[in-house]
Amino acid sequence: MVQWFCAALLCVATVTAQAATVLVFGDSLSAAYGIGAREGWVTLLEERLKREKFDYSVVNASISGETTSGGAARIEEALSRTRPALVIVALGGNDGLRGLPIAQMKASLSRIVESAQRRGARVLLAGMRMPPNYGPQYTREFEAAFADVARRHKVPLVPFLLQGVADRRELMQPDNIHPTAAAQPLMLETVWKGLRPLLKKPGDR
């Protein structure tokens, strides 16, 4: 009986150790817009985690067209459903494209980060930049907003999700907004640099 009980506890501990989830909470840039779902950087992330022996599952809760206010409205449901250990917040691009107030975007990002932190999840914030035609003041303040939120909540920041991609026309779809399948491994590398220090292997948890 004791032996069976110990074995059952070991089984439960193993399941718990393997249940850690990475929640990707973004927009079309993370939802594999215009390409096959399995080609997107989020799927590539899950494959890399498995390849490098990290026991995390990946849930992609990204929605094309999502703004930070939309994300703030649905973050609690996503957290309750997935109970993530890590949350990658990759929102803001649609706020910028619509010229929405930066203060509003910062407030919404803060609500998302705070919600995740209250649940005990570690957060990685992915920043975005606007093209220069939005004007120097807006583009400068937009980029700085992500650093401000990261600093306020003491979370790591990936400064620009499309680093090394946005300035290469061959890596962008015809709309010049969404990256191609060929760009996805580069996006993964950009995210991985910020994510890797947050990851734990089973013996560390």
Please tell me the total number of domains: 1
CATH architecture: 3-Layer(aba) Sandwich
Q: Beta-strand percentage?
A: 5-15%
* Averaged pLDDT: 91
Measured between the Cα atoms of the first and last residue, the distance is 28 Å
List the defining traits of the structure above.
single chain, globular, 205 residues, 5 strands, alpha/beta, Rossmann fold
How do the strands and helices of this protein lay out in sequence?
Elements: H1 2-17, E1 21-26, H2 41-51, E2 57-60, H3 68-82, E3 86-90, H4 93-97, H5 102-118, E4 122-126, H6 136-153, E5 157-158, H7 184-195
Parallel strand pairs: 1-2, 1-3, 3-4, 4-5
Helix pairs in contact: 2-7, 3-5, 5-6
Question: What do these coordinates show?
Answer:
By secondary structure, the chain is an alpha/beta fold. It has a single domain, classed as SGNH hydrolase (Rossmann fold, 3-Layer(aba) Sandwich). Helix content is 46%, strand content 11%. It contains seven helices and five strands. The protein has helices spanning 2-17, 41-51, 68-82, 93-97, 102-118, 136-153, 184-195, and strands at 21-26, 57-60, 86-90, 122-126, 157-158. It has a five-stranded parallel sheet with strand order 2-1-3-4-5, sandwiched between helices. Strand 4 (122-126), helix 6 (136-153) and strand 5 (157-158) form a beta-alpha-beta unit. Helix 2 packs across helix 7. The longest helix has 18 residues, at 136-153. The two termini are 28 Å apart. Residues 1-17 have low confidence and may be disordered.
